[in-house]
Each structure stands twice: as structure tokens, then as C-alpha cells.
Amino acid sequence: MIIIIYIVALCIYMALPFPFQLILLIINFLVPDPIPVLDEVIMYASVINKLSFLDNVFSFFEDHEIIAMIVKCILVLLLLVLAYYFVHAVFTTIF
Questions:
Q1: How is residue 36 annotated by DSSP?
Q2: Sign of dihedral through CA atoms 4, 9, 10, 15?
Q3: CB 18 within 8 A of CB 50
Q4: CA–CA separation, 95 vs 93, rounded Å?
Q5: In terms of pLDDT, which residue wins out, 85 or 6?
Q6: What's 31's DSSP letter?
Q7: Pair 43, 21: CB distance under 8 Å
Q8: pLDDT digit string (tens) for 33-46?
Q9: What is the CA radius of gyration of the chain?
Q10: Given pLDDT bands bounded at 50, 70 and 90, which one contains residue 80?
Q11: How far apart are CA 12 and CA 45, in angstroms?
């Protein structure tokens, strides 16, 4: 019965959009499971297969430089905010 559940879950995972696959891959990597490596390998293969859409994204940003610059600025600001919250959380727990 557990094998059927794994097969159904794998089929659902492969049909998910790329961002959801990445989120589930990270969660699966952090949660211990009875089959330590096999499911991660299958999930990595599915994520690598979905990476082909990045060619379309990069060509879009090459054609639209202003949008690319706006997206880059938003990503940098997001990383700065996340870094601030991470450093703040680390120092408040230490001191």
C-alpha cells in the first residue's frame, strides 16, 4: 500500500509547476524518510527536467532590459531584507 502512495505522490510531484517542485524538494531534503536517497534523486531529475523553461526567461530578460533591471533590484532588496532578519534572529538568540 505504501508503494502505491509513493507512486501517486511522485506522479503528482512531476505534474507540479517548477516553484512548487523546488519548495517540496527542499522540504523533502530536510525531513527524514525511510528511503534516504532514492526519492531525492527522482525529485532532482524532475527539477532538472523543468529547468528548460529558464532559457525562455533569460531570452525574455535579454529582450526587455528595463524589466530585467527592476527584477534584479527587487531580488537584491529581498536578499538584503532576508539577510537582515537572519542576522537579527541569530544575534537575538545568542545575546
A1: T
A2: positive
A3: yes
A4: 6
A5: 85
A6: S
A7: yes
A8: 766 666 677 777 77
A9: 18
A10: very high
A11: 15
Q: Look-up: residue for cell 529558464?
A: 54
pTM over 0.85: no
Q: Grid cell 534584479 — which residue?
A: 72
**Can you say how many angstroms the Cα of residue 7 is from the centroid of all Cα atoms in its chain?**
22
Q: CB of 14 within 8 A of CB of 46? A: yes
The span from the first CA to the last CA of the chain, in angstroms, equals 50
Position 85 pLDDT exceeds 90 = no
Residues 6+ apart with CB under 8 A from 33: 39
The answer to whether residues 6 and 42 touch, using CB atoms and an 8 Å cutoff, is no
Compute the distance between CA of residue 33 and CA of residue 13 in angstroms, rounded to an integer.
16
Structure confidence at residue 38 (pLDDT): 67
